[in-house]
Design goal:
Helices cover about 40% and strands about 20% of the residues. By secondary structure, the chain is of the alpha/beta class. It has 2 domains: about 10-120 and about 250-320, 3-Layer(aba) Sandwich (D-Maltodextrin-Binding Protein, domain 2), CATH 3.40.190.150; about 125-225, 3-Layer(aba) Sandwich (D-Maltodextrin-Binding Protein, domain 2). Strands 1, 2, 3, 4, 5, 6, 7, 8 and 9 form a 9-stranded mixed beta sheet that branches. Helix 2 (about 45-60) packs across helix 9 and helix 4 (about 95-105) packs across helix 11 (about 300-320). It is globular.
């Protein structure tokens, strides 16, 4: 399997320090395209729109968001990797794109580190295990009892093979030694609807995308995947509390540009990101949308973090047998 080479080369990122184009001094002079590699209504999309609003206000130019949800985000990331490194194309990326996809695809149109300049981690989002309100399952133990009674009969939805929704359920199956049947949909909104209507028995999805259904009474949350209880679902136990001490899934999301983007542009964007994420109003917006606030991680620390994430999830994904083309 032809995966991106590890360790990743960082020399391309150093080049802009040596000869930054003159336009870096007047950047930005026109709109910055922010590409969201997942569907409208997904957590990545929601965060992209918040970031676009903040960048536009702080940089003084429009920041349109364009959704390109294909092949688990690989098409969008490939487009960004090949875009002109002039500071006018950026993406919202994260765990799926850089830590999951290298283990799912035989080849990728991008290298997770070599082809991108990260400008810092934005936020995280945990998943919740949900069932429709009419479901007989009232706890994780109920789900597992049914799975053990009829191996492979219980179904779960996801926003696609290799999504964090898929891997959350696969991780449960591995740790509980049970068998479920995966029913992938074209995006998180469709997969959530399947859980609400009973097309599938259960599902894990990002809490930020589930809050409306939970608050509206269409979904019942049985567990959350974060280390601590979620403030929006304080009565819902964590997977650890439900009997799986080694279970944790908090998806992180970041922003990135093509690797050869001039250093002054990257430095300015990183400063914008650090400043906005430190502001109480932005933190409140993130919490209201269901996101987890994570400690600020500067661009310089992102390469080592991504390598560690790549290694952490490789074995989990390998055991699922999941492959994408």
């Amino acid at each position: 399997m032809d995966k991106p080479h590890l360790p990743f080369a960082l020399t391309r990122r150093a080049l802009p320090f040596l000869a930054a184009p003159a336009f870096a001094q007047t950047w930005p002079a026109r709109p910055i395209l922010l590409i969201a590699p997942l569907a409208a209504g997904s957590s990545v999309d929601m965060l992209a729109r918040l970031v676009a609003e903040q960048w536009s206000a702080r940089l003084g130019v429009p920041v349109p968001v364009e959704n390109r949800p294909a092949a688990n985000g690989t098409v969008a990331l490939g487009n960004v990797a090949r875009a002109a490194p002039d500071g006018y194309t950026a993406t919202i990326t994260g765990q799926t794109s850089v830590a999951f996809n290298p283990h799912l695809f035989a080849t990728l149109p991008y290298d997770p580190l070599r082809d991108f300049a990260q400008v810092g981690r934005i936020a995280g989002v945990s998943n919740a295990l949900v069932v429709r309100t009419a479901s007989p399952f009232r706890s994780l133990a109920d789900v597992l009892a049914a799975a053990r009674a009829a191996p492979g009969r219980l179904t779960y939805s996801s926003g696609g093979v290799g999504s964090t929704h898929h891997i959350s359920s696969a991780l449960l199956a591995q740790q509980a030694n049970v068998e479920f049947t995966h029913v992938p949909y074209r995006g998180a909104p469709q997969g959530i609807l399947a859980a609400q209507t009973g097309e599938v028995d259960f599902a894990y999805f990002n809490i930020s995308t589930l809050l409306t259904g939970i608050r509206g009474g269409q979904l019942r949350a049985l567990a959350v995947t974060s280390r601590e209880r979620n403030p929006f679902l304080p009565d819902v136990p964590t997977m650890r509390e439900a009997g799986f001490p080694d279970y944790e899934m908090t998806t992180w999301i970041s922003a990135a540009l093509p690797a050869a983007t001039p250093a002054p542009i990257l430095a300015r964007l990183e400063d914008v990101m650090r400043t906005m994420l430190a502001e109480a109003a932005v933190q409140t917006r993130l919490r209201d949308l269901g996101f987890d606030l994570l400690p600020w991680m500067p661009a310089a620390e992102m390469p080592a973090f991504i390598r560690a994430e790549h290694a952490r999830w490789g074995e989990v994904i390998r055991r699922t047998g999941a492959r994408l083309e």
